[in-house]
Design goal:
The complex is a heterodimer of chains A (114) and B (115).
Chain A (H helix, E strand, L loop, with lengths): L4 E3 L2 E4 L5 E6 L6 E7 L6 E7 L2 E5 L7 E4 L6 E5 L8 E8 L8 E2 L3 E5 L1
Chain B lengths: L2 E3 L4 E5 L4 E3 L2 E3 L5 E8 L6 E7 L7 E2 L2 E6 L4 E6 L8 E9 L6 E3 L3 E6 L1
Parallel strand pairs in B: 2-12
Antiparallel strand pairs in B: 1-4, 3-9, 5-6, 5-10, 7-8, 8-9, 10-11, 10-12
Classes of the chains: A mainly beta (114), B mainly beta (115).
């Protein structure tokens, strides 16, 4: 296992287009998180899954954003009708659902909306 | 809502010297965890050190140690014998115990290590 994997690493898209990112967590991890990191800021929580269930969504996650985790394995984050304000690094992290365990992060997908 | 504040946007240290990064947080919870994460340029975030709030003893990991002051809600990171590879963004993060266990991050401190 090579850790949390995210694809693509970089995405440039035109405003108004839809984009989809993928995250493959560490195989035995049942928790998966999406965070967004803008320039000069720390990561901000977007949503999290325990197995296939999406259990919490931040108010940052507008209705243009949707996330899925079918079968409790990989996850996708889709942004519809992208806006320039969506430009950010999107980070995925995974962990075990046991207290005090470490969250492991992927390298992120950097989205640029032009 | 919990908040995490890192008041030092940038810090620098000479190689082999010691540097301390500051972090304060606000919470009404009594049980929680605090973390320092390191984010090198273009690489993924990795955990540096973790502190459980119920533990009075400060956590240490090799050259990294924390000064956890629960009453003051302060959680600083000390890096001893700084190395060039320590150069990175450092994020302080808070996590509740139970529930989603999502992380709340500060804005980060950019650490430069001078040879």
């Amino acid at each position: 296992d090579t850790g949390v994997s995210q694809d693509p690493r970089h995405k440039i898209t035109k405003r108004g287009q839809n984009v989809t990112f993928r995250c493959d967590p560490i195989s035995e991890h049942n928790r998966l998180y999406w965070y967004r990191q803008t320039l000069g800021q720390g990561p901000e929580f977007l949503t999290y899954f325990q197995n296939e269930a999406q259990l919490e969504k931040s108010r940052l996650l507008s209705d243009r954003f949707s996330a899925e985790r079918p079968k409790g394995s990989f996850s996708t984050l889709e942004i519809q009708r992208t806006e320039q304000g969506d430009s950010a690094m999107y980070l995925c992290a995974s962990s075990l659902a046991v207290d005090s365990t470490e969250a492991f992060f992927g390298q992120g997908t950097r989205l640029t909306v032009v | 809502a919990q908040t995490v504040t890192q008041s030092q946007p940038e810090m620098s240290v000479q190689e082999a010297e010691t540097v301390t990064l500051s972090c304060t947080y606000d919470t009404s919870e009594s049980d929680y965890y605090l973390f320092w994460y390191k984010q090198p340029p273009s690489r993924q975030m990795i955990l540096v050190i973790r502190q459980e709030a119920y533990k009075q003893q400060n956590a240490t990991e090799n050259r990294f140690s924390v000064n956890f002051q629960k009453a003051a809600k302060s959680f600083s990171l000390k890096i001893s014998d700084s190395q060039l590879g320590d150069a990175a963004m450092y994020f302080c993060a808070y996590r509740t115990q139970g529930g989603s266990e999502k992380l709340v991050f500060g804005k980060g401190t950019k650490l430069t290590v001078n040879p």
